[in-house]
Every structure is written in structure tokens, then in C-alpha cells.
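For this section, I looked closely at a protein sequence along with its fold in C-alpha cell form, which I now present.
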Amino acid sequence: MDESAHTVHVAVVDGSGRQVAACGDGGLVTFPRSSSKPVQALPLALAAPELPADELAVACASHAGTPEHLAVVERLLARSGSTVNDLRCGTHPPFDPDAAAALIRRGERPTSLHHNCSGKHAGMLLACALNGWPRDGYTDPGHPLQRRIRALHAELGQAELQQVVVGTDGCSVPAFALPLHAAARTFAALAQPSGEYAGALERIFRAMTAHPFLVAGPGRLDTTLMPLVPGLVAKMGAEAFYGLGLRSTPHGPLGVAFKIMDGGERARPHVALAVLEALGIPVTPEMRALAPAPLHNWAGREVGTVRVELQLREV
């Protein structure tokens, strides 16, 4: 018998931004959460074309707080003359268990540097400095940086500005909700950059795909999946959102966004693989291992299985 179920909505768009397939409601208005980070990093990429790729990658990251992540964030902070005290993201322990345990062993408390969004905030501070905007209040919806980011969501998503709904994210910057197909277009823009932002979008794509570890961390889906699929950029968002930009598919470059309605993070890798397979991407054993179907109890006995029923329809 079925014990639990997750409802999923998916939108797929081609390189021009035309919606070509969907599952459920492709027009669902929802928050991409951290899947917006590549768009939130675009003002930085535009203002700092020579920024090292690892620093641009960590500006797009939901990082795990490892020493490698922290070192890159500190370099990015220093470029604007900022310190950890200027970050307005709040504080939580590192996502990486080893990094969290190391803090405890040393008797240290986490700082804002360990927050998974500290790279994004460091990048925002540098974007402000380079554009001549005040760093104070950089998380406010009315700040020039946040108004610019909202406009970029609308422009890349081919949506009206009023369709981009403003909320507050877990790290205190504005979270922008938009139709699912509009979110997919932001990832299609990474898969097939064009127009005035093409150079900056290409640098973001290359930074994220060249440094998948910095985008997330040990054992996390973005970090493990991107190296297994040539031409794939992927970014998870809280509450089980996911965005994918695919450069090489039987259908050409594609952008994909999906939302699991109950926020069930455990379903995300299963849905991601099902979507990739439906789009003609071969799913290798290494990919399949990221979302094993059999479920085992603590004694190692198989006690159930995960079944995915996801059919993309042409639109």
C-alpha cells in the first residue's frame, strides 16, 4: 500500500523560453528560494567580469560551511572591504556534519560566515560597492540591488514585474515568487545565454559547473549531480524547489523548474532523475545511486520502495 505521496509540478522551456512540456501546473506561482541565487548573482557578474570563478560560484551557493567554503567567502568579503559583521544572513551551524562537529570540538560557536547563504550575501555586498550603492540596508526590498534583482527575475523569466511577488527568504533578503515556467526560463538563460547578459550568464554557468563542490557540498545533490551530466547546471531551493539548465538534450537546450508541494526534500533526487530521463538524458548507475528506489530499515532489510509516476505532457 502507498504510505506517503508527494505532488509535483514541473515546467520545461526551450532555449527561446517557450514552454514545451509540463507536469501538473506549469504556471504555478511559487518561491524558487535558493534556486534564485544564479539570478541574484547576476548584478555581481555584470559588475565584476574578472571575478575568479570560485568566488562567483560561492555567490550562487547554498554551501555546507566547510573550511573550503569559508575560505572562498572570506576572499569575496574582503574585495568589498567587508567583514563577517557586515553579513545580514543570520547564523546557523554548518550543514556539513564534519564541519559542525569540528566547531563543537574547538568550543566555537558558528558565525554568519557558516550560514549557507553567506557567499550570496558577500557577493551582494561587493555588487553594492562596485555599483556605488550603499551597503547598509542591502537586504531591504527597496534597496537598489534588490530592485535590480527583482527586475532581472521578470526580464529573464519573461514575466511582468507585478508577477514577481516579493516575500522574505530565510536569510532575510527578498524572496521572489514567480510562475514555474518563468523560473524555468531563468535556467534556460543559463543553458543558452543570449542578449546583453550573455557574457555574465556564461560566466555563472561556467563557475557553477566548474566548482560544483562550492555550490553545495559533500554528498549534496547539486554537487553530486552536475559532474554526472555534461552541460548541466543545477541549483536547489528550500521547500523542495529545483532548477536545472541543460545544454545538451535531444530537444536542444532546456530550462526546467519543479516544485514538490509538501516541501518534501527526500523526493527531490527521485524527481530530478525522472525529469532528466523523460527529457532523454541517459540515467547512469552513478546517477541512479543518488536516488535509490529500495527502502531499508536499520537492520538492512528491504521494507519498501519509492515509485515515481511523472508524465510530462507537451504544451
In short: The radius of gyration is 19 Å. The mean pLDDT is 97.
